Amino acid sequence: MLLAVGRIGRAHGVRGEVSVEASTDDPGVRFAPGSSLATDPSHLGPLTVESVRPHTGRLLVRFAGIDDRTAAETLRGVLLLVDSADIAPSDDPDEFHDQELIGLLAVTTDGTEVGEVVDVEHLGQDLLVIRRPGGDALVPFVRALVPEVDVPGGRIVLDPPPGLLE
């Protein structure tokens, strides 16, 4: 499974640098010089990081073979991806990577099956997307509503208030 670790923005300067909005917990590793990143759309990659530097809350990255502003602009909007197998699990028992949550069975505290986690959205707050027979439900990923996450057991326990799953 491929996971997005960043999105390429505008070209910066005339020597092929692009701004990158990183969406990874470890940009120093993911965007280290020499790192190879898959792309979406796939025909534009893989891209190899040649240099990287911080700039106003983003990264400025230069990829091998992208030598001028025109080439850099062709990458605008491209998602940068890594294989989920290359991401080590967190040491924090209360922290999870998206790929660990996707596919888990969602059950309520009384054991009623309510659906499957099909995505995790990060919209100011982490939201679990639960696929249900009547349509997807968004559940804020907070301890009060998700008191238990059992990755090895393949399930999460929900304690939803009335109406949340409807």
Describe it for me?
The chain has helices at residues 27-30, 69-73, 98-101; strands at 2-12, 17-22, 36-40, 47-55, 58-63, 79-83, 105-108, 113-122, 126-131, 137-140, 148-150, 155-158. It has 166 residues and is mainly beta. The radius of gyration is 19 Å and the shape is elongated. The two termini are 30 Å apart. The model has no long low-confidence stretch (mean pLDDT 88).
Helices and strands in order:
Layout (H helix, E strand, L loop, with lengths): L1 E11 L4 E6 L4 H4 L5 E5 L6 E9 L2 E6 L5 H5 L5 E5 L14 H4 L3 E4 L4 E10 L3 E6 L5 E4 L7 E3 L4 E4 L8
Strand order of the largest sheet: 1-2-5-4-3-6
Which band does the percent of strand residues land in? 35-45%
| General form | elongated
Radius of gyration: 19 Å
Residue windows where pLDDT falls under 50 for at least 5 positions: none
Structural class: mainly beta
Q: Spell out the helices and strands N to C.
A: EEHEEEHEHEEEEEE
**Total helical elements:** 3
Mean pLDDT equals 88
**DSSP strand tally:** 12
**Distance between the first and last residues' Cα:** 30 Å
Helix content, binned percent: under 10%
Q: Tell me the major beta sheet.
A: 6 strands, antiparallel, barrel
